[in-house]
Design brief:
Its EC number is 4.2.1.17. The chain has eleven helices and nine strands. It is globular.
Length: 265
């Protein structure tokens, strides 16, 4: 693993921390490879049942490292190759059956928006700003932004972001459905800590409950576009039957039934 991304596992929770704070966690070649490797490990480990993505410094992710693009890339083919590497990590997370929460303080922009939308539940700060901004430097959306943004907030609102240099406030991001909730802090550092703390609470809630069922629910929603409506119904029926046969569900169903019987007396 690389220092550009930190990876730890603690009691079922894998934490991936973007760690290029001086560059607002913008992606260069090192972070791209580290991201791909860390996400692949997180979703493949049997001891990981929830994933948290956060970031060091004063912002979540500013997208691609424009200075590195300008000085270290021979042409567009280099940028395409870099995007493919980062996309491997995006696919690892979104196609997995492990629920993912993001702690996104500060600013999220460009490709950082794609990393943000890898999460299934996002917590942001009251001071947070979120936007696209690709066209400001003559580039087009990548890292799943064109795929996920319209699904998350609707086509018209997605077009408002990608066709303007607008940054949403935290209240707008929650209202539009990009983020699940926003938390405040006395200053920027305290707010970043509060965002990380709340995101970990969400992850620990999954871990304390039926983490496998939450993961399968995430998989059903994320993978739905691959199937027709009839096939989705069939997959739901198959999944709930498979879940019913797990020891966790058997214990929870029995406990619920027992409690219901007791309360009915």
């Amino acid at each position: 693993m690389t220092d550009a991304i930190l990876f730890t596992v603690d009691d079922g929770l894998a934490r991936l921390t973007l760690n290029r704070p001086a560059s607002l966690n913008a992606f260069d070649v090192e972070l791209a490879h580290g991201w791909r490797d860390a996400t692949a490990e997180a979703v493949s480990r049997d001891d990981v049942r929830a994933i948290l993505i956060d970031a060091a410094g004063r912002s979540f992710c500013a997208g691609g490292d424009v200075r590195a693009m300008a000085t270290g890339m021979a042409g567009g083919s280099d940028l395409t190759a870099l995007a493919h590497i980062i996309n491997e990590g995006i696919l690892s997370l979104t196609s997995s059956s492990v629920p993912v929460v993001a702690a996104a303080h500060g600013t999220t922009a460009g490709g950082g928006l794609g990393i943000f939308m890898c999460s299934d539940y996002a917590v942001i700060g009251g001071r947070s700003k979120i936007g696209s901004l690709y066209a400001n430097i003559g580039l087009t959306p990548d890292l799943s932004v064109s795929a996920h943004l319209a699904r998350a907030i609707g086509e018209r609102r997605a077009l408002q972001l990608v066709l303007q240099d607008r940054l949403l406030t935290s209240a707008e991001a929650v209202e539009w459905g990009l983020a699940a909730e926003a938390v405040d802090g006395a200053d920027a550092d305290a707010e970043a800590d509060a965002v990380r703390e709340r995101a970990e609470q969400i992850a620990r809630f999954w871990l304390a409950g039926a983490a496998g069922a939450y993961g399968q629910a995430k998989r059903l929603v994320r993978s739905q576009p691959e199937r027709s409506f009839a096939d989705q119904l069939a997959e739901e029926a198959r999944s709930i039957g498979a879940a019913f046969d797990t020891p966790d569900a058997q214990a929870r169903v029995a406990a619920f039934a027992a409690a219901s019987s007791k309360s009915a007396r």
